[in-house]
Amino acid sequence: MAYTDQIVFLAGFLLTLSILASIPAERSGVPVLVIFLVLGMLAGEQGLGGVQFEDVATAHLLGTMALAVILFDGGLHTPLSSFRTGLGPGLSLATAGVVATAIITAGCVVLLYGDPWLNSLLLVSIISSTDAAAVFYLLRARGLELHPRVRNTLEIESGVNDPIAIFLTVVLIEWVLQQHQATPAGLLVSLGQQLIGGAALGGAGGALLTWVVNRLPLPASLYPLLALSGGLLIYGMSAYIGGSGFLAAYLAGLILGNRARLARRSIQRFHDGIAWLCQIGLFLMLGLLVTPSDLLQVAPKALLVVGAIIVLGRPLAVALCLLPFRFPWRQVVFISWVGIRGAVPIVLSLFPLLAGVPGAVVDFNLVFFIVLISLLLQGWTVAPVARWLSLQLPRLHPDARWIDLGIPSDHELVICELPPQCPALNAPLGALQPPYGVQLLALVRQGCSVPVTPQRALQARDLLYLLVPSADSSVQERFDHWLDEMGAQQPESQRRFYGEFTIGALSPMADFAAIYLSKPIIDAQPDETIGDYLNRRLHNKASEGDLVEVGNVMLVVREMDQRQIVKVGVKLPRPPAS
Amino acid sequence: MNVVNLLVPERIRCGVHVTSKKRSLEVLSVLLAQTEGEPTDRTIFEHLIGRERLGSTGLGKGVALPHARVDGIKETRGALIRLGQPVDFDAIDKQPVDLLFALIVPKHFTDEHLRVLAALAELFSDHAFCERLRSSQSVEEMYQHIMRWQADSPGS
Fold this sequence. Notes:
- Chain A: It is found in: Cell membrane.
- Chain A: Keywords: Antiport, Cell inner membrane, Cell membrane, Ion transport, Membrane, Potassium, Potassium transport, Transmembrane, Transmembrane helix, Transport.
- The complex is a heterodimer of chains A (578) and B (156).
- By secondary structure, chain A is α+β, with helices and mostly antiparallel strands.
- Chain A is built from 20 helices and nine strands.
């Protein structure tokens, strides 16, 4: 009894501490996941807590479950529209990218340390996947509004690449243990089974789960639980038949998050919390599992491997895999930099321990150290690097809460707060013009409801209550965009990013050239609109924030509606310093 | 860049009363077309309004920078007006405009005018500077504020 009580006390204590510690962490910019990891280490055998935890099998079980939930949650929050720009490059990075990163980095380790190829490959495969939890968290953290195509690519990559890394790890372990008699053909079949099995079960399971959620009359609080259990069920089934459970969980979440009509927002909100719990639990546990003093021995090698993967492995692999998609160099640099490693590698490094690979403990510590450095270094610098490469859009998404109405009315209620300094301030309500189909229901100012009249001027911190149709995804996309516009920052940073003037994309390119260019554009076609021209220069993959240089002027894609460019910024050359 | 060289007090107006964007551009065109043997104010107006068709030159916060390249004029030239009543200018922030600086550049000039425009955009994004112009009572006072900014600004 006393033992049980102690464990409950300890769990509650550590969780509370972690949640409280995330506040100063967020303010100071320290990646919050590192805090959890360090708290785990502090509570562990060599820290203040002195907790003994060496049970690799339990850690593996809990870790896998947590990862499944985190990926399911990642899918739930990924809008299908992000696949329009991110699917191709994301998949390329998640498959070929993982393999290329592993081979290049393993080559460095072999050259520098003289380790056998097989062991080096195993080590590097373990750390070859980017971490969905860390990437989702960092890219969605407040204050970072990233170039959409870059964000979509990174998110899809991190959601899909774990199965490949897991597969590589499992195969290489068998190889190292010399249990593998399979031919290359057999390997391919096995990889295909993982991917196809995972995709099929994730797709079918997700569709079925969505159907059940939309049809079954349940008490409102049970829908999120139904979704969670469905996600775990789909993971388990897929893994049981030899498919990739992680891929299945991600896909099922993706389908449910986009297609559920009844309880979507409460499911998403619930899973937000659960995903946080999983992340905190996962990192705390991994922190407990490691023996900090052992980390020092592997420090030199860990630094070297991190260096190899950050400087050589990932950039080369990313540049190679993105070649067909013709990303501008800034985006390639950023995607290379955001190859954040997280819990997946640490959980994966438990595999060799469980399988009894000689030297596996060293690898576990090594991987742990590598992840710690990657989280610290890359996690800390994501936002500054995005700013430096001007991939950060100058706006803040206004705080908006989506609430499902709990009845099948095909509408959702959105409450959003007007940020200070947004351009809509002082403008009359009539000028707000939300997208067609969206109704402004009420305006709440300082806790009091104010009558909605077209002349009423908006103030900072006003709460807008809006009714948004939920069945039509294009209305939702427009609405999201409208929200972004409301959160646009002061003209100063807008001007820095989008340039001095804004022009319509339907204007003829020739008119633009007559005013801003001294030489004719070589690659222009007669009667072309500015939008057409930009689309051609951007290979029909335009995305907000994309830059195209024309003469001495920069054109910036400022506003898009679905695939169409609507507004374009004109960025003039900088005035001379003297 | 020297704003002073672009501007003379004769091309500044204070407290102009117009009722539309179009009228404000006409006033600016008349100010800009003062020299003999050069395009008329009508031609300049057509160029300015042609530029507005691409998209408003309103910078936001009540300021607009209409501009055009005009064939036949001899040098880069600016005109500044302050309106008595702000007019709707389709600006990006949908706010009406009351400070307008128009710039015309000879056709054959290459890229210099782009830098001039960028510098003007920078100057007119200075909120304090715009407020000083708005509170000016006379053309002379507005001109003084611009001269002073010129003297204070580093590197010019």
